[in-house]
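Recap from last week: sequence in, structure out.
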Amino acid sequence: MHMNERDIATVHSFAEALCTGKALLIGAGAGMGVDSGLPDFRGTSGFWKAYPPLQKLGIRFEEMANPRWFSESPELAWGFYGHRLNLYRRTKPHIGFSLLLQWINEQKLSPFVFTSNVDGHFQQSGFPALSINECHGSLMHLQCIDPCGQPIWPVDPEMRIDIDEKTLLARRPLPACPGCGGLARPNILMFSDWGWDPERTNGQSNRLDQWLLENGDSELCMIELGAGASIPTVRLTCEEIWKSTGGTLLRINPRDPEVPEGAYSLPMGAEDALRAIEAVMTGG
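Predicted structure tokens:
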């Protein structure tokens, strides 16, 4: 892992801020999951490499991540999301998650996570569920496709989606609503998604707002990991919070490392950057 002098100075500056700070806000985008081995959907070629059956059908990610498939082809919809669910549950989060948690515990920092990822890997890594805001929802939670009154519910740990790998079609029975028995769908925000139930995410957002009231000052450290500019929710949120608090912001991104003046930047992958900070934290 080669770093130039500027990057080394950035790592030291952020490590110092962590050691003197009181709270840590973690902003995480898709790049955080890529280092765990999850597929990168950036660009049509990357998406089709992960899902060859959809390449045959000529369906791009933006078209597939649309709730209409649950009405038009429930088997294909659950083939796609079921495959992702199975993948997320069997993929082990990379060591960077553990390092973040370790710093939080060692430095006695008050933590919060703001992420666009729907993989549940922060919870899987041991982060407290009440300190996570999943702005696009979570594939680990389901909702009814009809507003039948059934509240959002967590995925049963025993649930497995049986999928034909050649066609990406899920085999029935498909996940069902425990309230009305109708078709269930993931509680994630898709494209053109007017049926998404935001109740769970709204509750998380309210908890983040409360946390910021208590921790949003100059001793707040922010580390943004793998949040690209194409869907900039995490980037813009982190910048907005940073501008209002005057804290310390470090953006880690190998493709889109640009930052506002006064913020820090590392043009690296998430895991490599976190390992570099850990080396400084431990005097290595």
